[in-house]
């Protein structure tokens, strides 16, 4: 039996370098996310939008832009996501920029500790998001969430989940990466993050990358997917603040989502960095909804689940 689903809007671009991701939750609603999920037999409850401080649009202070506001938003996200998991519901966080994954994933990690579950995080993104205040060229905290979750960041952010670090690098699999700052690249290697970048996908194929990313999960694994829409090639998904050419095609992205669905382990989801201000007739939101449907079992053909593997 499928778990009931809760949509949680987080309308802020507090951690980003471009304004507009604050409109992402509404764009996903306009694109029919709730109806699309309900069409797959899911019980969907839209919890509306969380509230938080406005974006002051200030320069960085000590290597961080808008740190107090980022902390406030992530605390709100943490509380909301944890409450849904506690209630036995699957949270889908509608971003908002990707700094919000600190609150979301720290809540999932806390839930897993409390429930005695193993955690696996799939980070679908053009960027590794493993910057720190020392490494970052911009101070934008949406470039730092994975580092913060792994314990490398300001105290107020790394402590949100109640345990530092919230997660170990070994639980993360990054897919589609193609833009990493030089210092960040060294740090990623140093901590041993498992990264399936676009060169790997070009050489080995999306199927092989996903087989490895999903390997060793079992019935006690909670799978969290953090889907940054800039994971996709900007030719098909222009509505993001940081477009990086050379991302997965439509079919590669569909295969990625379908293989996650086949695993049967998906238990929480972020949809991040959708920026309607930079989109064309909401096409990126429509595509995101299409891909999320595939995460919940939509496929081109009817397939016998026993023969999918």
TrEMBL record:
For this UniProt entry, the molecular function terms from Gene Ontology, in alphabetical order, are: arginase activity; manganese ion binding
Annotated residues for binding of Mn(2+)? 98, 125, 127, 129, 228, 230
Q: Its Enzyme Commission number? A: 3.5.3.1
Pathway of action: Nitrogen metabolism; urea cycle; L-ornithine and urea from L-arginine: step 1/1
Q: What does the record note about the cofactor? A: Binds 2 manganese ions per subunit.
Q: Give the SUPFAM superfamilies listed for this entry.
A: Arginase/deacetylase (SSF52768)
Kindly state which keywords UniProt assigns to this record, in alphabetical order. Arginine metabolism, Hydrolase, Manganese, Metal-binding
Where, by residue number, does the polypeptide cross the bilayer?
A: none
Any one GO BP annotation for this protein: arginine metabolic process
Query: Highest taxon of the source?
Result: Bacteria
Q: Name one GO cellular component term.
A: cytoplasm
**UniProt cofactor(s):** Mn(2+)
Question: Which reactions is this enzyme annotated as catalysing?
Answer: L-arginine + H2O = urea + L-ornithine
The record's PROSITE patterns line, in alphabetical order, gives:
ARGINASE_1 (PS01053), ARGINASE_2 (PS51409)
Entry-linked PANTHER family: ARGINASE (PTHR43782:SF3)
Would you identify the family this protein belongs to, as annotated?
Answer: Belongs to the arginase family.
> What name does this protein carry?
Arginase
Tell me which species this is from.
Answer: Rubrivivax albus
């Amino acid at each position: 039996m499928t778990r009931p689903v809760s949509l949680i809007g987080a309308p802020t671009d507090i951690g980003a370098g471009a304004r507009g991701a604050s409109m992402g939750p509404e764009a996903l609603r306009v694109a029919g996310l709730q109806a699309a999920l309900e069409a797959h037999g899911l019980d969907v409850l839209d919890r509306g939008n969380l509230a938080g401080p406005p974006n002051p649009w200030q320069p960085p202070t000590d290597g961080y832009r808008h740190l107090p506001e980022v902390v406030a938003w992530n605390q709100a996200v943490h509380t909301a996501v944890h409450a849904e998991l506690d209630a036995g519901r699957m949270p889908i966080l509608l971003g908002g920029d990707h700094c919000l994954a600190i609150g979301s994933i720290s809540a999932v990690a806390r839930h897993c500790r409390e429930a005695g579950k193993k955690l696996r995080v799939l980070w679908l993104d053009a960027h590794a998001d493993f910057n720190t205040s020392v490494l970052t060229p911009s101070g934008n905290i949406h470039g730092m969430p994975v580092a913060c979750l792994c314990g490398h960041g300001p105290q107020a952010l790394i402590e949100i989940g109640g345990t530092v670090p919230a997660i170990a690098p070994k639980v993360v699999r990054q897919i589609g990466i193609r833009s990493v700052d030089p210092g960040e690249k060294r740090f990623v290697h140093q901590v041993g993050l498992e990264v399936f970048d676009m060169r790997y996908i070009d050489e080995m194929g999306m199927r092989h990358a996903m087989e490895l990313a999903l390997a060793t999960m079992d019935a006690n694994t909670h799978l969290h997917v953090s889907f940054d829409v800039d994971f996709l090639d900007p030719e098909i998904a222009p509505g993001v603040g940081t477009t990086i050419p050379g991302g997965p095609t439509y079919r590669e992205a569909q295969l990625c989502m379908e293989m996650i669905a086949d695993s049967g382990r998906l238990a929480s989801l972020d949809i991040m960095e959708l920026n309607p201000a930079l989109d064309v007739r909401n096409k990126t939101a429509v595509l995101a909804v299409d891909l999320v449907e595939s995460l919940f079992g939509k496929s081109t053909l009817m397939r016998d689940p026993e023969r999918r593997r």
